[in-house]
Amino acid sequence: MKEINLGRVIMRKRHERGVTQDELAFAMGVSKAAVSKWETGQSYPDITLLPQLAAFFNISTDELIGYEPQMLKEDIRKLYYRLSSEFASRPFEEVLKECEEIIRKYYSCFPLLRQMALLLLNHVSESGDMDRILQMVVSLCLRVEKEGEDMEDVRQAAFMRACCYLTQQKPEKALEILGEDINPLNQERAMLAQVYLAMGKSQKAEEVLQTNMYQYLLSLISDAVAFVYLKQDDMEKVEETIQRIRGVIDLYHIESMHPCATLNFYMVCAQAYCGAEMDEKALGMLKEYVRVCTTSPDLYSLHGDEYFDRVDAWINNFEPGNKAPKDARTIRQSLLAGLTNNPSLPRLAKKEEFIKMAESLQFKLGGE
C-alpha cells in the first residue's frame, strides 16, 4: 500500500474548492495553524474530524487519507493465472463478478487494472455480451491512460483500447490511437546492446540482441499470417509468402520455440488454399497443423533453444497475459475447434483425410 498522503490531499482539495486555510479551519472548528500543520505533514487531524473533512470536500474517507491499495507484480501474476483458469471452469458471469470486485478494491493500482483489462480482452469471446465486456476493457484502459504514471502501462492500455475498437468494427477510432504513419522499427533496443557493449557487459549485450532477433522473428510470422489472409485473392503472392515463411520457420526452429505461432500460420494457409479450391494443398497445411498439435511437447509457452540460449530470462519476466492468454485447457479446446468447427473449411469436412485428422486431434487434445 502506498503511504497515506492526508496533508497533500487536504491541500489539493482545498485549492480545488477555492477555500482558504482560515475558512477550512472555521468549518472544522480548529485554528488556521492546525490546518497549516495538517497540510505540511507536521500533524494529522483528530480521527473524529475525518468524516467531517471528507463530507466537506464531498469525497470518501479513503480518498481523503489517500488510501490506495496496491498489489505487487507477483501477486498480479498469480491473480491473473487463477482467474484465467477459473474462466475455463466456472460460469463467465461468476468470474466476471469477482473481477469487478477486485477492480473496485484496487482502482488505483494501474498495473493491476491493465492486467485485468487484458484478462477480459483475452476471454471476451466466452462472454454472452461481447460489447459490454469490450466497453469495460475500454473504460479500464482509459483510466490507465489518463491516470497511470508508468509509460509502459499507458502504451499497452492504448494498444488494447485500439484492439477493442477494431473488434467493435470502429477502425477509425483505432486509427486515432495508432496513427497513420508507418514508423521505423524501434531502434532503442539495438542501441541498448551497444550501450552494454560499451560498458564491457558483452553477455548482457548478447542477451539484448538475441531477444531483439527473437521478437522480430515472431513478429514476422504474425505479420505473414495477416498478409496471407489479406492476399487470398492473389494465390501467387500467397504461395510465395508460404514458401518464404516456412523457410524461416524451419531455419529458426520456430515450431519448437513457439508452436502456437506456427499453428496460426498453417491454419490461415489452409483457409487460403480452401478458399481457392486447392483442396490437396489445404489438406497438406491442415496435416501440418495436426502434426504440431499432436507432437509438440509444450503448445502453451514461449522458450528459447540452443541458438536463442539467452532469451528465457526475458520470457520468464513476461506479465501473465503476454505469456499464455488463456489456460491450457481453453487453448486445447480452441485448437480443436479451429479444425473441427472452422467455417472456412466446409468443403473439406466430408473428405476422408480430413475426418481422420479431426479424429486424431480429438483423441489427443480431447483426452488431455
UniProtKB/TrEMBL annotation:
Gene3D superfamilies (alphabetical): lambda repressor-like DNA-binding domains, Tetratricopeptide repeat domain
Keywords: DNA-binding
UniProt xrefs under SUPFAM superfamilies: lambda repressor-like DNA-binding domains, TPR-like
CDD domains xref list: HTH_XRE
One protein family per Pfam: HTH_3
HTH cro/C1-type domain ranges (all copies): 10-64
DNA-binding among keywords: yes
InterPro entries xrefs: Cro/C1-type_HTH (IPR001387), Lambda_DNA-bd_dom_sf (IPR010982), TPR-like_helical_dom_sf (IPR011990)
Name this polypeptide is given: Transcriptional regulator
Organism: Murimonas intestini
